[in-house]
Specification:
The structure is a single chain. The protein has 150 residues and is α+β, with helices and mostly antiparallel strands. It has a single domain, classed as Multidrug-efflux Transporter Regulator, Chain: A, Domain 2. The chain is built from 6 helices and 7 strands, in the order βααββααββαβαβ. The protein has a 4-stranded antiparallel beta sheet with strand order 2-3-1-7. The protein has a 3-stranded antiparallel beta sheet with strand order 5-4-6, with helices on both faces. Strand 2 and strand 3 form a beta hairpin. The chain starts with a strand and ends with a strand.
Length: 150
């Protein structure tokens, strides 16, 4: 099976973020691309899973969440559902955080669960991976030809 990789410029274009954001997220450990050393420097490539991570951060920032919230949601997503970012049938989830205890979890999206969490004073973030995946598919197919490595 071949895996597709994208340059920093391609990744930024596809995800809809700036090169500076990519650099900051890489340096902060939010999204960790493949970095290979070459004779004259290093090459950085983003995998398809990395693109989903980038697009998720862009999505959460675009709906008004802070960088810190996006980073925490993405970290929880990677820990609780490691394969979900590359899942071909992505789900809609909600990130729920106890404000006092600081505990957080991801659960399947359900309107009643959202209302119940709000009623209990919990912080709730939509994690609509289907929307993120759809946006990425559209952008990848239209804009960029990826590098293929076997």
């Amino acid at each position: 099976m071949e895996e597709r990789f994208f340059t920093t410029k391609q990744a930024a274009e596809i995800a809809g973020c700036t090169l500076r954001q990519l650099q900051y997220w890489r340096e902060s450990g939010v999204v960790v691309p493949v970095i290979t050393e070459t004779g004259t420097g290093r090459s950085i490539y983003y995998s398809e899973k990395n693109l989903v991570e980038l697009a998720a951060m862009v999505y959460w920032l675009s709906v008004g969440f802070t960088f810190e919230v996006g980073r925490e949601v993405l970290k929880t997503l990677k820990e609780q559902y490691p394969g979900l970012l590359s899942d071909r049938e992505p789900k809609r989830l909600i990130f729920v955080k106890e404000l006092q205890a600081g505990d957080s979890k991801l659960v399947e999206f359900d309107v009643e669960k959202v209302v119940a969490a709000w009623a209990e004073g919990k912080f709730v973030v939509p994690v609509w991976l289907d929307v993120i995946h759809a946006r990425l598919r559209e952008r990848v197919n239209v804009r960029v030809k990826p590098k293929v490595r076997v």
